[in-house]
Amino acid sequence: MKRFIASLLSVLVLMLLSTSVFAQYDNVQPIEMTVNLTHEDGQLQPIWAWWGYDEPNYTYMKDGKKLIREISELSPVPVFFRAHSLLVTGDGEAALKWGSTNAYTEDENGNPIYDWTIIDTIFDTYIDLGMKPLAQIGFMPEALSTHPEPYRHHWKPGAKYEDIYTGWAYPPKDYDKWAELVYQWVKHSVDRYGKEEVESWYWELWNEPNIGYWRGTTEEYIKLYDYTADAVKRALPTAKIGGPETTGPGWDKAETFLRTFLDHVVSGKNYATGETGAPLDFITFHAKGSPKLDEGTVVMNMGAQLNDIRKGFEVVASYPDLRYLPVIIGESDPEGCAACSEEDYPENAYRNGTMYSSYTAASFARKYDLAKAYDINLAGAVTWGFEFEDQQWYAGFRDMATNGVDKPVLNVFRMFGMMEFNRLKVEGDFDYDYKKISDASVRDNPDVNALASRGENAVTVMVFNYHDRNAIEVKPTPVTLNLEAIPSNKVLVSQYRVDEQFSNSYTAYKAMGSPKNPTLEQIDQLEQAGQLELFTSPQYMQVKDGKLTLNLDLPRQGVALFKVEFMP
């Protein structure tokens, strides 16, 4: 009997706790926000128009070319692409976290052999669609590596991450030969694409040299940078060269590496020239979140990513001679490993659905806020998520599309592509700002806020409803959006939506029963579901005294874009 009573009490306690938890999330508070079209807040630079990926050979494969074309079409400005392994030795075979171009080999006498065929195919794909390379100079060709064997890895999800750091990650055995390789590559690019085109690119050295991607010392990386920057400038004095692409500065060792590099750029002795300092045209570092699994539920950590950005901006701002250089967050993502699938890493279960899309909207809004707060010239924030060729459908990789079908996250970028370039202030009594999220992430109430901008003929407002915790059934948040100082008596209002029901191929896929091999008809349905959808038909609305009020019920992890066009 005592055991029965104890069990009953335990059940009652669990019921009360459960009721309390869900009551917290069911207590949805209405949000009211105001956008006055005269309250400008600087430029809304298209920092989102930057992508990157580990596997460069995917660029010209079937689904890769399809996705690149779609990305080019969604952006009103040239998109920059950053790919690893552009100088790696190999036959061009694509694999997870692997790629090669065979740009550099040597004959039996040690003389260089340059072959730009694969690199040209990659860059041609970009250039033909009006895109541009963030050309990563790396990694080490086999013939130049101080530790060439083993050279190629065969990593698979679930294997040790350290297994990828093979011969390509080591310093060169001959810095002069390395410099000549860089010089010849830049010179070839100018010959092929023209001086004006290559001047618009960014050249950078390596990736995350403060961890296993660089198997040398910090000082050896600095030496490599000096030889590399000198070679780039000799080939094209007006070329832009930068680095060091460290991991997130929120980590002490990463901050130390970044500062050591910047100290050298300002006042160190140059290994290549013997002069003081080194050329630096832009600064790069990474910023990553850190999702966890809590009793089967994914819990994101946007705060970790924003803290990396904040620390990086603090470092840059502390150098008077460098603080206004362009900053590129070379990888800016919810976590670290794009090729780590959901099956092997269940904390990555956010990637297929709306959690990734709402996280993207909310995090980019705060990147703008951080850049403004620290007076940083933020040029770009690279989304390290492209596509993975010939993988299982919706395998939970961090990608924009699966087997050629767009995921919900890509539709948020389509929304960004529709926004105007003059940012407007969004005013209201909000629960979060960049400081609070950077310190503690989004753990209590949801983050319901907006990003707004205007042009000559329209105003756009992206409204998001984000929370770190996934898979919680809650009511939509009622949102009132007040627009003021509209310079027209009549407007055309279009609302686009990304949520569980709209612009969501993953919902459509699950409704089909999650087929392992969808039919051609099902693939066509998925492709249609993967496009950005209107929530309702566009409506003409009257404006009174320059004011207009728009109302919506926005689901958790939902994103809405209002485009309000001024009518004559």
UniProtKB/TrEMBL annotation:
<feature type="domain" description="Glycosyl hydrolases family 39 N-terminal catalytic">
    <location>
        <begin position="102"/>
        <end position="529"/>
    </location>
</feature>
<feature type="active site" description="Proton donor">
    <location>
        <position position="208"/>
    </location>
</feature>
<keyword id="KW-0378">Hydrolase</keyword>
<dbReference type="InterPro" id="IPR017853">
    <property type="entry name" value="GH"/>
</dbReference>
<dbReference type="GO" id="GO:0005975">
    <property type="term" value="P:carbohydrate metabolic process"/>
</dbReference>
<keyword id="KW-0732">Signal</keyword>
<comment type="similarity">
    <text>Belongs to the glycosyl hydrolase 39 family.</text>
</comment>
<keyword id="KW-0326">Glycosidase</keyword>
<dbReference type="InterPro" id="IPR049166">
    <property type="entry name" value="GH39_cat"/>
</dbReference>
<dbReference type="GO" id="GO:0004553">
    <property type="term" value="F:hydrolase activity, hydrolyzing O-glycosyl compounds"/>
</dbReference>
<dbReference type="Pfam" id="PF01229">
    <property type="entry name" value="Glyco_hydro_39"/>
</dbReference>
<protein>
    <submittedName>
        <fullName>Beta-xylosidase</fullName>
    </submittedName>
</protein>
<dbReference type="InterPro" id="IPR000514">
    <property type="entry name" value="Glyco_hydro_39"/>
</dbReference>
<feature type="signal peptide">
    <location>
        <begin position="1"/>
        <end position="23"/>
    </location>
</feature>
<dbReference type="InterPro" id="IPR051923">
    <property type="entry name" value="Glycosyl_Hydrolase_39"/>
</dbReference>
